[in-house]
Write a structure and sequence with these properties.
Blueprint: E1 2-13, E2 16-27, E3 31-35, H1 42-49, E4 56-61, H2 70-73, E5 77-80, H3 92-102, H4 108-115, H5 131-143, E6 149-153, H6 161-175, E7 181-185, H7 189-192, E8 198-203, E9 206-212, H8 213-219, E10 220-225, H9 230-235, E11 240-243, E12 248-253, H10 257-261, E13 264-267, H11 271-289
Parallel strand pairs: 3-7, 3-8, 5-6, 6-7
Antiparallel strand pairs: 1-2, 1-4, 8-9, 10-12, 10-13, 11-12
Length: 290
């Protein structure tokens, strides 16, 4: 069953078309990563899904129109923006008190459990916390809310590498249960690759790839080609080529691993490298059409 389904989704700000006929689907019980550079349309996509801005085209989130049914939808959706905003005058304990008083789905014990893994003191005021601590506090609150859809925009922004790893570990072990759906964006693509079930690439307002991680791992392979095999490798029509140290790195789609192993070292493709290849191919096709 679809948690998020969009067809022909468009959004313009003045003459600037930010979302251009976006089609996407995220099924329930999945962890989807929305990946793209700054200005690609990620935040606008999230804001549309959350009913924060109107849109053209078809969009259903948990079976509802997010713009007209936002009040009802927000009972089942939890969102954390890329900039964690919490009242600076509040103490940590007061933040927990407030959320417990206004949100029926908030599990205070779970929030306390998340905070126990940090050095945040309950008596501290938000303004006394570092940027990373404020992010940790916000994450503890958000992840303690029982929601059918969790939307995270750059959730680990401001955290050092240790706490980023702890966050993704907690996301899998303490929050994700196979029924909830998670949609997230991040610039630390490599760090979240292992938690994703689905990948959505967006560039210049268009979806250029939308596939399950298991399909990507089966379809795409990167090969560090030996110099004497370069001509043979190019004959297999790679979708991207770049220069490595002493070898050319070629990316293939749909070519058997055994065949590629004859050409050099076969590697698992990273999402960052795959995005660069797909985005470059997409841009090239666009120029050709123009």
């Amino acid at each position: 069953m679809a948690c998020i389904e969009a067809r022909g989704l468009c959004k313009a700000f003045g003459t600037n078309l930010v979302l251009d006929r976006v089609d996407l689907r995220v099924d329930e019980g999945r962890i989807a990563g929305l990946i793209g550079p700054n200005g690609a349309g990620k935040t606008t996509t999230l804001n549309t899904i959350l009913g924060l801005i109107p849109h053209e085209g078809e969009l259903k989130v948990l079976g509802r129109d997010p713009w007209t049914d936002r009040d009802q939808l927000m009972r089942d959706v939890c969102f954390m923006a890329d900039v964690a905003v919490l009242p600076r005058w509040m103490r940590v304990s007061q933040v927990l008190d407030y959320v417990a008083g206004v949100h029926p789905g908030f599990n205070r014990a779970k929030a306390e459990s998340f905070l126990a893994k940090t050095t945040i003191k309950r008596a501290s005021k938000v303004r006394e916390l570092s940027k990373g601590m404020v992010t940790q506090l916000h994450l503890a609150v958000v992840m303690a809310i029982n929601a059918r859809l969790l939307v995270l925009d750059e959730p680990t922004l401001g955290l050092d590498i240790l706490f980023r790893k702890q966050f993704y570990d907690s996301l899998l072990s303490d929050y994700f249960d196979g029924n909830r759906t998670i949609l997230l964006t991040t610039h630390q693509v490599e760090e979240m690759q292992h938690v994703l079930t689905d990948v959505i690439f967006i560039d210049r307002g268009r979806i250029i790839l939308d596939r399950a991680m298991e399909e990507i791992e089966q379809a795409y392979r990167e090969v560090a080609v030996r110099p004497e095999q370069l001509q043979s490798a190019r004959a297999l029509k790679p979708i991207h080529e770049r220069q490595g140290i002493g070898r050319s790195i070629l990316l293939f789609e749909g070519v058997e691993r055994e065949r590629l192993a004859e050409l050099g070292e076969v590697r698992t493709i990273s999402l960052a490298d795959l995005f660069l290849a797909v985005a470059g191919d997409h841009a090239g096709k666009g120029r050709g059409a123009a």
